Amino acid sequence: MREMKVGCCLLWCLFLTYHVVSETPASTDDVLVFTVATNETDGYKRYRRSIGVYGFLDNLNVLGVGEPWQGGENIKTSVGGGYKVNLLAEALKKYQNDEERIVIFTDSYDVIFLGGLDNIIDKFKSSNARVLFSAEGSCWPDRSLASKYPLVARGKRFLNSGGFIGYASDVYAILTHAPIENKDDDQLFYTKVYLDQELRERHQIKLDHRSEIFQNLYGVVADVELKFEGGKASLVNTVYKTEPLILHGNGYSKLSLNSLGNYLANAWNPEEGCVMCWEDTVEIDKSVPDTFPVLVIAIFIENPTPFLEEFFVAIREQIYPKSKLHLFIHNNVPYHQDTVDKFVKHFGKKYRSNKQIVPSDAISEVDARNLAMDYCVLMECSGYFSIDSISHLDNEFTLKLLVDQNRGIVAPLLVRPYKMWSNFWGAIMDDGFYARSFDYVEIVKNERRGLWNVPFISNCYLINATLIRNKETRPSYSEGELDADMAFAYANRERSIFMYVSNRLDFGHLVNADSYDITMTYPDLYQIIDNKLDWERKYIHQNYSKNFSPKETPTQPCPDVYWFPIVNEKFTKELVAVMEAFGKWSDGSNHDSRLTGGYENVPTRDIHMTQVHYESQWLYFLKEYARPLQELVFTGYYHDPPRALMNFVVRYRPDEQPLLKPHHDSSTYTINIALNRAGVDYEGGGCRFIRYNCSVTDTKPGWMLLHPGRLTHYHEGLRVTNGTRYIMISFVDP
User: Fold this and answer.
1) CB 376 within 8 A of CB 468
2) Cβ contact 579:617 at 8 Å
3) Does the N-terminal peptide bond of residue 141 adopt cis geometry, omega within 30 degrees of 0?
4) Is 729 helix (H, G, I), strand (E, B) or coil?
């Protein structure tokens, strides 16, 4: 209960329904359950949900609702909370003489119930106490009192005030035995009661040393673990072999509580998956555009980013009425401005409004993010969708699905393909940086689907606009020396605002911008290793996968010469442009300083991949895309990875080098990819295999000829009579 009090609800909800599935009907109507919650925070909603799951909402009494908090400024890490004592005393006044009625009091913002009242009461009665407090391993807030505590043979020794249970008359007597100011410390108050031997014996006050009922998490996170049994999750204290019924994330254990809360109280289980995902959701009628809430899409291009054109394609293809979307774009990279301008020119008018901040405006990232939120307020938006340029939304319904989820802050899970890098952290270390949670891998690999309360999200998320309008909950991107992403998550954690990441469905992925070099001609072309998925989508031939279909017979224009579609024309045009921009074509003579020994037996006018810094990328291309085709047709030959010392683009021109004399290649097999169009970009040309008197002249851009190199396939390059012919050659496994 010791966080800043905040509350939020989505503007796009016409009303909020509270939906839980009760696990057991309430059977202890005379039990009083009390808590204090001056605001409906995310933590309070979780607390209330857990009570609903176990069927005793009718027993719940919430104190302080709508009243200003009077128990101290920040009692998460300092003293305070006497206000809770006084509120409870006032509420129990009419029960002060009731010796049979049982009272349960817990904090709310950091508490989850794990069982029904029947079990709680049974365990309480078996303790033979009149009042039973939860226990912890630290003596707080006055360590000097530790020596006055009774010794225990086994278990936690010190009182924690976050949860207790007792008979109404005894609890009331304890609450009123001495006055307490609202800002005094409640735990110190109860500690002094417990340490008073006369009071302790009179009211039979005990501590739940072994967590039979109450489990405080601080300092003992490693001692508890989840157990899935009977299709549901429960908590086990592995030290005392108990299954606590009330979980309290006291002190600095709140993030661990959030993690466990993703599963407990029937939030998630292996059989049904994410039960909690369906609670409090809304569903916009996609056939009625006017029912969609107004959103601001805030796009941030802070660093050079690969595949930016594809990023914008994904934005414009979102199935969401553009009349309900405002655009805000902050571009901090001059190199990308043409791409941004092209998008805005062609599609900007379709949106409700659009606003740009260009590199020459010299606006920092933090200032831009604040301006974007201001723009959301100005446009009276209901939601604020922040997306960085590395986030690709492959699911065209992402925006709608996030709105339907109806949470204060929710992110779609985005992962770097084939990596464990994502846009969320499941846990953090004490210094606030990444730590791997117990379920991180399962979530990232989509082996566990659901909605996960996490301590850090970045790159792409939807924020309820009510959070932005409230100065106490408005996201902050400036916190000390932290970068914008770290500051955002830190500020939300400090304010106890839950951040969720959803992988209920596949939403998209992240591109890796670490190696993106905009000094290169067509830098996307160089991203085959670091961004394989996006590279494939952009450059691999649309029919490449059909090569492997059992129904397809490989095209064989000449004996043992195979022809495959492998790359598209975008690739071929860009590769030619890279070579021409470099421009240092060899002179076609036998003397070649690029080669060991400096002599080329069969010279061509060419540029080597090493010269344009594309050698490693090309070798990867051979391994991932050419080698599987070779194995498909030349059965029994396996060499992974393939080795190729000669990888080069050849240029044929009538006035330069129009043809190539007959020769054998220094390879086990050779690949030859046409880079432009026969009969359009040039006339003549082609390859003739002399032994078979068979020529291939009708080459198509992006199609690869694959043939043996030595002995059998003596061949020549036919004369180009007009225009310029480009081909990509690799001598594989020389």
Assistant:
1) yes
2) no
3) yes
4) strand
| Averaged pLDDT score across all residues of the chain | 94
**Tens digit of each residue's pLDDT (9 = 90 or more) over 433-457:** 999 999 999 999 999 999 999 999 9
Q: What are phi and psi of 635, to 5 degrees?
A: -60, 135
Strands 214-216 and 460-464: unpaired
Question: Could you tell me if 193 and 172 are in contact, meaning their C-beta atoms sit under 8 angstroms apart?
Answer: no
pTM attached to this predicted model: 0.92
Q: What is the DSSP letter of 219?
A: T
Q: How far apart are CA 720 and CA 572, in angstroms?
A: 19
| Cα(387)–Cα(368) distance, integer angstroms | 13
Q: How many beta carbons lie within 10 A of that of residue 128, not counting itself?
A: 9
CB 500 within 8 A of CB 454: yes
* Residue 233 burial by Cβ neighbours in a 10 Å radius (0-12, 13-18, 19+): buried
The structure tokens listed for 308 are 């930016």
pLDDT of 63-91, one tens digit each? 999 899 998 876 555 677 999 999 999 99
For 511-545, the pLDDT digits (tens) are: 999 999 999 999 999 999 999 999 999 999 999 99
- On the 0-12 / 13-18 / 19+ scale of CB atoms within 10 A, 221 is middle
Long-range contacts (CB closer than 8 Å, 24 or more residues apart) made by 70-73: 70/182, 70/183, 71/182, 71/183, 71/186, 72/182, 72/183
Q: Which of 405, 374, 369 is nearest to 387 (CA)?
A: 369
Asked if pLDDT for residue 24 goes beyond 70, the answer is no
d(CA 496, CA 498): 6
pLDDT score, position 16: 35
- Give the distance, in angstroms, between the CA of residue 545 and the centroid of all CA atoms in the same chain: 30
Q: What is the dihedral of CA 70, 76, 77, 83, to 10 degrees?
A: 30
Helix (H) or strand (E) holding 577: helix 569-582
